[in-house]
Design brief:
Strand content: 25-35%
Structural class: alpha+beta
Number of helices: 8
Order of helices and strands: HHEHEEHEEEEHHHHEEEEE
Radius of gyration: 18 Å
Shape: globular
Distance between the termini: 48 Å
Bound molecules: biotin
Number of strands: 12
Length: about 280
């Protein structure tokens, strides 16, 4: 299959053994009590949202070997070739004020970097809000879609895509310069199954910590891995663009930018890129 799909580059791997990802096998408290597995799907996030709307429980997982319409942040697509990467979405029903929904996304970024660090020589970094990078290139992405009532979060779909055994040569040109994979970083393939197990365990642990102990500990670990700390960045938001030095995040997960005037601006949603000092 690999030879046909990607002439001259490594073959994609075997299907995942889904039974090894279930709560019973992994000892997780919340995640993986039910797993919905697909060899191909349009988008695990779209499917998980449908399940959540039909009443799926906290911790159900939708996982697919490949996606035909993988979704990224800000309306972008997520390149999702089969049998080489990981694509999955969690249905979560957290006890969370809607104003704090962003905490869940940042919590997921901490869990994902914990897991990836166990499979790579370096700990990946986080670009606000939740891009996971290695060597400045994108290794994993997180897409959260929430449904809220007036005073509480009804459900959150947390979708995670990790480039695992994806050879750089096989990536579309449009992303090759900006994206990487564990295989590209390590020079050899890793077990997708073992990584998926670890991800589900780390997500379960960090989600539990957020629910039981709040955001403070997670925020501190997020800040340690913050790729842009102290750098001048441009934040493009719907209505305006702000340039400032990245100082960290606040208790709601907003990015704090210090403008040249010294004013601290909060960025709640947008696209953030570093700018060379002096080029702002
Ligand atoms: C980003 O733009 O960085 C977010 C990418 C999120 C991709 C994952 S893959 C699994 C899940 N299903 C989707 O359609 N998107 C997310």
């Amino acid at each position: 299959m690999g030879a046909e799909r990607w002439p001259g580059v490594a073959a994609p791997g075997d299907p995942l053994d889904v039974s090894s990802l279930a709560a019973g096998a992994l000892g997780t408290r919340r995640l993986g009590r039910k797993i919905h597995y697909f060899s191909e799907i349009s988008s695990t996030n779209a499917w998980a949202r449908r399940l959540a709307e039909m009443g799926a429980e906290d911790g159900e997982i939708v996982i697919a070997e490949g996606q035909t319409q993988g979704r990224g942040r800000l309306g972008r697509s997520w390149v999702s070739p089969p049998f080489c990467n990981l694509y999955f979405s969690l249905v979560l029903r957290p006890r969370l004020d809607p104003a704090h929904a962003a905490q869940l996304t940042l919590t997921a970024a901490v869990a994902v970097t914990d897991s990836l660090a166990a499979f790579m020589p370096v700990t990946p970094e986080i670009k606000w809000p939740n891009d996971v990078l290695a060597g400045g290139k994108k290794l994993a992405g997180i897409l959260t879609e929430s449904s809220c009532r007036s005073d509480r979060v009804d459900f959150v779909v947390l979708g995670i895509g990790v480039n695992v055994n994806y050879p750089t040569e096989a990536m579309p040109e449009a992303i090759r310069e900006r994206a990487t994979s564990i295989m590209a970083q390590n020079g050899s393939a890793v077990s997708r199954e073992r990584l998926a197990q670890r991800l589900i365990q780390d997500l379960d642990r960090c989600y539990g910590e957020l629910q039981d102990s709040g955001f403070a500990g997670i925020a501190a670990r997020w800040e340690e891995r913050f790729w842009l700390r102290g750098r001048t960045v441009r934040a493009v938001m719907l209505e305006e663009t702000v340039v400032g030095r990245a100082r960290g995040i606040d208790a709601e997960g907003a990015l704090l930018l210090e403008e040249a005037s010294g004013t601290i601006r909060r960025v709640l949603a947008g696209d953030v890129t570093p700018v060379e000092d002096g080029a702002a």
